[in-house]
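Question (not urgent): is this output format expected?
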Amino acid sequence: MEDQLQPTEEKKSPKWKSLLKKFGIGGIIFFTVKGIITSTLIYFLGKNFWIIIKDYVAQWFD
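Got this back:
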């Protein structure tokens, strides 16, 4: 059983190392910040989406 767990742990480490080599520390920071900003925008736009649509449609009938 222990022999089966070791290869999966060894595969994860080179994946992170290859990502670090490919993007560098600056790239990882960039993608992290980009993800946070995108998630925040999706959250706030999704929260207010129906309010904006309702107000827009209500203008047609005024």
